[in-house]
């Protein structure tokens, strides 16, 4: 019996969610502040959590608004700042829900190519020089969704310079920042130039998405405007969720949770990189330094339809071979795992490759070296050596169309 490994979700799988810690935090939260948790609360969020976040970001509490997930923060921000027809820069590719949200509001969305060190600032510069008046630039600076790339320090500075000289706001959408497992951390653009930046982050990726807690940091006046919108939208976000997150954070459980998620992602990323190198040696990718996502380019001239058929018939990355010890079929993740690729590892799903002809290779069905079309499930243990290992930087991605991302 084959199991399926989902590559769809960019969030912690249940085995790395601190369920016991959350339960304990909930008990403490209800005991210590029953009125705060069970009342309507305020539109700006649970005040102790707001203050905790303000301290972390070294801003005033009045600059913070805590929401039901950061998608809600995005929606409030777009409703406040972006009118129909306004030009908004996004990365190409970017998070599909941001695109949807902007397009629904009638924004004039301009996509600027994403490179392994972040958005192509030269392309943005050309756009601005040609007279495009930009209202907002949406940037996912760390371990970008869906590419896994991180914006370099130099590009952070260039973006801020451009924002200042062309008077636009940078929306720094940063839910993955704590999940670095290699390389050096970089300062947020918010900390570099707070006047030009509105910042969003989330507990979905470090604690769990079901808790639905995200937040915005920005100028006091903007946050006050958004707080009015929040009041009119839902009176207040969930005080129960935010009270639990506050207790979880205050007690230090969150730091342990981040460590757990980070080290699991490091291991899963290495496993995936090894598997890709071994099974899809012609695929190119940049090994990410954190987060959940890895972007794969398959060789030019590949045939998306053929790939899809092949994956469905012989989904080597999704299904594995029989475990010798158990005499039955099991997920390839079990075989790959040096610590658990099984379950929602959260790395982009291979189906993404299929979404676009430019991304999707292989005229003859793509398959791993261990199986043949005749015996789609007939992988054997013998295999060729991987050509590259995780951590080796491969050539950068060619421009490709925006993929559709499953959340
Ligand atoms: C860049 C980015 N922003 C926002 C979100 C939404 O996060 P939340 O669960 O806090 O709504 C995601 C989720 O995948 C994301 O990748």
Briefly summarize what is shown:
The protein is an alpha/beta fold and 407 residues long. It has 14 helices and 12 strands. α1 crosses α10 and α4 packs parallel to α5.
Write a structural description.
The protein is α/β, with parallel strands linked by helices and 407 residues long. The chain has two domains: 5-12 and 262-389, Aspartate Aminotransferase, domain 1, CATH 3.90.1150; 33-251, Aspartate Aminotransferase, domain 2 (3-Layer(aba) Sandwich). Helix content is 37%, strand content 12%. It has helices spanning 19-32, 34-38, 47-57, 70-81, 96-104, 121-129, 153-166, 189-192, 220-234, 239-250, 253-279, 304-313, 332-336, 351-354; strands at residues 64-67, 87-92, 108-115, 118-119, 134-139, 169-173, 197-202, 214-217, 284-285, 296-297, 322-323, 328-329. The strands form three sheets. The protein has an eight-stranded mixed sheet, with helices on both faces. Strand 3 (108-115) and strand 4 form a beta hairpin. It starts with 18 loop residues before the first helix and ends in a 53-residue tail after the last helix. Bound molecules: pyridoxal-5'-phosphate. The site of pyridoxal-5'-phosphate has 14 residues, from helix 4.
């Amino acid at each position: 019996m084959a199991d399926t490994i989902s590559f769809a979700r960019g969030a912690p799988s249940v085995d790395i969610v601190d369920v016991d810690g959350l339960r304990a935090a909930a008990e403490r939260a209800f005991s210590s502040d029953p009125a705060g948790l069970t009342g309507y609360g305020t539109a700006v969020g649970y005040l102790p959590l707001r203050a905790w976040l303000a301290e972390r970001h070294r801003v005033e509490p009045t600059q913070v608004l805590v929401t039901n997930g950061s998608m809600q923060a995005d929606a409030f921000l777009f409703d406040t700042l972006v009118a129909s027809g306004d030009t908004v820069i996004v990365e190409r590719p970017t998070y599909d829900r941001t695109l949807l949200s902007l397009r629904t509001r009638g924004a004039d969305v301009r996509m600027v190519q994403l490179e392994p060190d972040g958005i192509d600032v030269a392309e943005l510069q050309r756009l601005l020089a040609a007279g495009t008046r930009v209202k907002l630039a949406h940037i996912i600076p760390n371990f970008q969704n869906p590419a896994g790339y991180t914006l370099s320090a130099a590009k952070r500075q260039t973006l801020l310079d451009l924002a200042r000289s062309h008077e636009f706001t940078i929306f720094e959408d940063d839910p993955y920042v704590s999940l670095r497992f290699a390389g050096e951390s970089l300062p947020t653009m918010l900390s570099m130039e707070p006047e030009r930046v509105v910042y969003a982050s989330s507990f979905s990726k470090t604690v769990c998405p079901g808790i639905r807690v995200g937040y915005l940091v920005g100028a006091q006046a903007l946050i006050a405007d958004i707080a009015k919108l929040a009041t009119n939208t839902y009176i207040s976000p969930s005080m129960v969720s935010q009270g639990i997150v506050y207790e979880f954070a205050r007690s230090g459980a969150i730091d342990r949770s981040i460590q757990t998620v980070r080290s699991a992602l490091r291991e899963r990323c290495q496993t995936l990189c090894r598997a890709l190198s071994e099974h899809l040696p012609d695929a190119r990718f940049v090994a990410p330094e954190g987060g959940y996502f890895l972007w794969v380019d398959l060789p030019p001239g590949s045939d998306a339809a053929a790939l899809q058929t092949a994956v469905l018939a012989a989904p080597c990355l999704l299904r594995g071979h029989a475990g010798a010890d158990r005499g039955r079929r099991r997920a390839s993740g079990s075989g790959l795992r040096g610590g658990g690729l099984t379950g929602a590892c959260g790395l982009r799903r291979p189906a993404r490759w299929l979404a676009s002809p430019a991304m999707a290779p292989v005229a003859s069905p793509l398959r791993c070296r261990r199986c043949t079309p005749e015996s789609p499930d007939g992988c054997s243990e013998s295999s060729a050596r991987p050509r590259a290992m995780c951590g080796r930087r491969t050539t950068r991605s060619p421009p490709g169309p925006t993929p559709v991302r499953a959340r």
